[in-house]
Amino acid sequence: MLEKIYGYALAMVLPDNLEVPSHTTLIQELESLQSKYPHRMSLKLNGRSRAGRDLVCVELGDSDKVIAVTGGAHSDEPAGTVTCLYLAKNLLENPEFEELLLKHKFVIHPMLDPDGAALNYRWAREEFSYQDYLLHSFRNNRPAEDCEHGIPVNKDQEIRPELGFFRSNVDVYKGNIEFYITLHTTHRTGGSIFAISAKGDQTGRISALAELCERFQVPVMDVDLHGEKGIEYIAPGFIAAPPMAKLAERFRDNPEILSQIKMSTYEYVEHHCGAQFCLISELPSILDQTLRATCETEIDLMELKKAHLDSRRKWIAALGDAVEELESLGVTEDNPWFDRGKFSARFGMAGVEGEAKDLARYEGIKAKQYEVSDERVEELERELSLHQLYVKCLGGRDDQTPLHQDHLHQFHEKYRKLEALIDYRVVPLDRQVRIQTAMILTGADF
Fold first, then answer.
1. How would residue 195 be classed by pLDDT, with cut points 50, 70 and 90?
2. pLDDT, tens only, 207-252
3. For the chain, domain boundaries
4. Of 53, 108, 125, 147, which sees the most CB atoms within 10 A?
5. What is the CA radius of gyration of the chain?
């Protein structure tokens, strides 16, 4: 199986100028494919996002064995959208891929959050830069608004139209979905990480995924979270997909957040559609070599976690001050970056205190080298996020140009400090696409 999948990934036909498509370009490309292959491809555009953009679902093949794929559920992780587009192209046009459509049906949501994708397009369309990502990226972090974790669990909760569209499409294949994968990106980490939710022994598939990442020089990163946030350790690079119930447990004392916690796409496909194997892939776009070392230090992990939580408390307080200042300057929730910041300032402390209650789990455990080295980096990234908030809220306002320029200058100054602390290399987009394609095809029956 491994050699077959690796061969498909290498055989993918990709353009020399591969880039992230806009929402408009994505639809144009898919409509062109449908016009060429009307009997082999179905394109659904019968849903609208909150901002009125067409929602997209692609169906390829006639088999009753379904492989379901989601890209762009988190809008600042666009590589999955690129993978979905070129997987569809290769399935239809590449002779090497022809047998796959004879044995499987692919149900693909290439851009689950088109409104968020539009907010990220400024940095995503160009060659990836970590600096541009930190300055311009957007992620809606409200529990109820996340397009990965936003399917209602009770009748009192609303569903975003994007997820209503997703749910209606996968419900059609209830009982026939053998494999579901949602494609994600960790923008700076020491390697690939997978969260799985599966029935039966999946040792072979786990081994294949780890070997594929190794071959593409983006090896898995072995992280044991010691049960943090209810996440169980399975194997090097593999953790159990965190269930919604564990997240709800963290916020059991905060009814307002608790009421917003919903089900993830992979939980829905597993429990309501009967999928045998669900996979969340977290592939780095920035491979940080400083996070590769895993040897133990003499530092107690509990003490390190306490220091980490104290640092986050200070950041949340600083975020609250920034939100108050921006509000006094007339910035409103119409600005998505401000809306996100205001929510984090209001509810961030609840998450920190929830984690503080679980510190006892780290007693007697020594920290790993990468955990220690990453602390100063995370602190700088939090500082950068405050400057980003000002830049994105005040940009284009003549009355606040000096303040905007001051925060932009401070952002660049602190980014230089950050860059001096990390030993990283960018994972090219074409390699990300080939790796993610290989991940998808681990669900194929050879």
1. very high
2. 999 999 999 999 999 888 888 877 889 999 999 887 777 777 777 7
3. 2-285+427-441, 296-423
4. 147
5. 22
Nearest to 70 by CA among 192, 167, 212: 167
Q: How confident is the model at residue 51 (pLDDT cuts 50, 70, 90)?
A: very high
Task: For residue 59, give the amino acid letter.
Answer: E
The class level of CATH for 2-285+427-441 reads alpha beta
Asked if pLDDT for residue 144 goes beyond 80, the answer is no
Q: What is the distance between the alpha carbons of residues 326 and 228, in angstroms, rounded to a whole number?
A: 34
How far is Cα 99 from Cα 264, in angstroms, rounded to an integer? 32
